[in-house]
Specification:
single chain, 260 residues, alpha/beta, Undecaprenyl pyrophosphate synthetase, 6 strands, 41% helix, globular, binds 3-methylbut-3-enyl trihydrogen diphosphate, binds magnesium ion, Isoprenyl transferase, magnesium, UPP_synth-like_CS, metal-binding
């Protein structure tokens, strides 16, 4: 249950899906939605199942949400699948997560490709175990020319290390006399992030009620609208996504300015 001060959205069953859909303004669909796919472990625990069963159920949610994004014309979907801190988990769980990734890519690649989905990865992908890394590279290559929806999978991703890596790359260029440090600005640093050619997320969704970013898109989410729901990721579906879109469209994005 959400805490009593819960400031986000309405409760899950407050409004039927059909009436929610009618509230969506097709001209103000967020261009980029980011999701922290959290709560798989709790979902499994509540059912007396091993954590990996929760991760498996979470894959189904990704499929549903991707379909909903296609339906509403969302251009970029970034999903947090494995953080740089998730290596702290037991090896069995980490291995199971990568096995699921391989299984997902092998099973879904053709369907995703047919739908015009372009798969990309952000994070220290080079440090992933060989099997998931190769499968991911294959999926990225295979879908590289698609442009209907960009599915950005954050794997071995950390917002801080992303910024550190950008700073290192820029420092090298300065050391070698290729750039003048005075000319470094926000756009320049942005071009050195994993998300260089992706617009900042408009909407960031966190299921399972946690009120934190957990090192996700720290730079990019400076002015992102955050939407949190107590629903656990394996229970998250079309309805939750629609509710998030409706609430997003009700927000007043000021970017530090004032309303005229
Ligand atoms: C998110 O679910 C999946 C990953 C972090 C890979 P969790 O496994 O974190 O689920 P909870 O937070 O323990 O419920
Ligand atoms: C964030 O969830 C990472 C992913 C969903 C991949 P965590 O479960 O790892 O985050 P914390 O530990 O609750 O902050
Ligand atoms: Mg978690």
């Amino acid at each position: 249950m959400p805490p009593s001060f819960w400031p986000f959205g309405r409760s899950k069953d407050a409004e039927p899906e059909q009436s929610l859909i009618q509230k969506i303004d097709p001209h103000r669909i967020p261009q980029h939605v980011a999701i922290i796919m959290d709560g798989n472990g709790r979902w499994a625990k509540r059912r007396g199942l091993p954590r990996v069963a929760g991760h498996r159920a979470g894959v189904q949610s990704l499929r549903r949400v991707l379909e909903t994004c296609e339906e509403f014309g969302i251009r970029y979907l970034t999903v947090y699948a494995f953080s740089t801190e998730n290596w702290k988990r037991p090896a069995d769980e980490v291995n199971a997560l990568f096995d699921l990734l391989v299984e997902y890519l092998q099973r879904e690649l053709d369907t995703l490709h047919d739908k015009g989905v372009q798969i990309r990865a952000i994070g220290k992908v080079s440090e992933l175990p060989e099997n998931p890394r190769k499968e991911l590279e294959r999926a990225v290559r295979h879908t590289a020319n698609n442009d209907k929806l960009i599915l950005n999978v954050a794997l071995n991703y950390g917002g801080r290390i992303e910024i550190v890596e950008a700073v290192k790359a820029i420092a090298r260029q300065a050391r070698d006399g290729q750039i003048d440090p005075e000319r470094i600005d926000e756009a320049f640093l942005n071009r050195h992030l994993y998300t260089a050619d992706v617009p900042d997320p408009d909407l960031l969704i966190r299921p399972s009620g946690e009120l934190r970013l957990s090192n996700f898109l720290l730079w990019q989410s400076a002015y992102t609208e955050i939407w949190v729901t107590p629903t656990l990721w394996p229970d998250f579906g079309r309805k939750e996504m629609i509710q998030a879109l409706v609430d997003y469209q009700g927000r007043d994005r000021r970017f530090g300015g004032v309303k005229v």
